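Example for tutorial group B:
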């Protein structure tokens, strides 16, 4: 028998979303405060990134403890990867095709990413150490924590009150907004929809985590390659 997802009530869900927002704001303000006193910008950006993921882990632990959930309640359920790999690769190609067309459209309008863009600064580094840090941050920690929160908790809870695509749209908008990158909102929103679809289809977060990790790894490798 298929295991049903557990969901947060409206108050708990609002508290979780508010908690994510507060964590982001505090980390951004803390990074700006530290930057005014310490000149090592790259180290501060990495510190912000890792603290963000650790904060997400803390929030997941709070939900798990207070609600007495097990990991399956978050969506961590076994799946036969031999059966889902074709859809992971296919949806990855779809996401990157849409992203590529969006990038061409921006270029045709004369837009280029600003030099102050955080992701270009972090993932555009071409040393072995920075690549390993980027791999750990973007390809391992981010898929684990972000899929658990945005798909497992937020999308899974919203699905209880709305239809699949309404819940996917709301959770994907939150997912994209909290990256604080205006020109990257649409690609991340679309990626969020695809990840929500993967989770809903397989009743497991593992395929969406794999797709998220693959997407971030290729982006990190491409940015590192372009900076060499």
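The residue assignment follows.
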């Amino acid at each position: 028998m298929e295991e049903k997802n557990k969901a947060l009530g409206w108050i708990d869900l609002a508290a979780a979303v508010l908690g994510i927002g507060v964590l982001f704001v505090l980390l951004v303000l803390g990074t700006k405060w530290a930057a005014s006193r310490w000149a090592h910008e790259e180290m501060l950006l990495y510190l912000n990134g890792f603290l963000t993921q650790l904060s997400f882990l803390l929030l997941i632990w709070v939900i798990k403890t207070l609600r007495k959930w097990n990991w399956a309640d978050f969506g961590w359920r076994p799946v036969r990867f031999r059966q889902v790999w074709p859809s992971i690769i296919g949806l990855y190609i779809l996401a990157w095709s849409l992203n590529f067309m969006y990038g061409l459209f921006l270029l045709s309008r004369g837009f280029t990413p600003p030099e102050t863009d955080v992701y270009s600064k972090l993932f555009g580094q071409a040393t072995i150490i920075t690549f390993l840090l980027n791999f750990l941050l973007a390809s391992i920690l981010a898929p684990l924590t972000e899929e658990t929160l945005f798909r497992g908790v937020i999308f899974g809870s919203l699905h209880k009150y709305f239809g699949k695509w309404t819940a996917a749209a709301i959770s994907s908008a939150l997912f994209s907004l909290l990256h604080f990158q205006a020109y990257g909102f649409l690609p991340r929103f679309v990626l969020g929809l695809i990840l929500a679809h993967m989770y809903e289809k397989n009743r497991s977060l593992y395929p969406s985590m794999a797709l998220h990790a693959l997407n971030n790894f290729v982006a990190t490798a491409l940015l590192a390659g372009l900076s060499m």
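The two ends are 52 Å apart (CA to CA). Compare this with the pattern of hydrophobic and polar residues in the output above.
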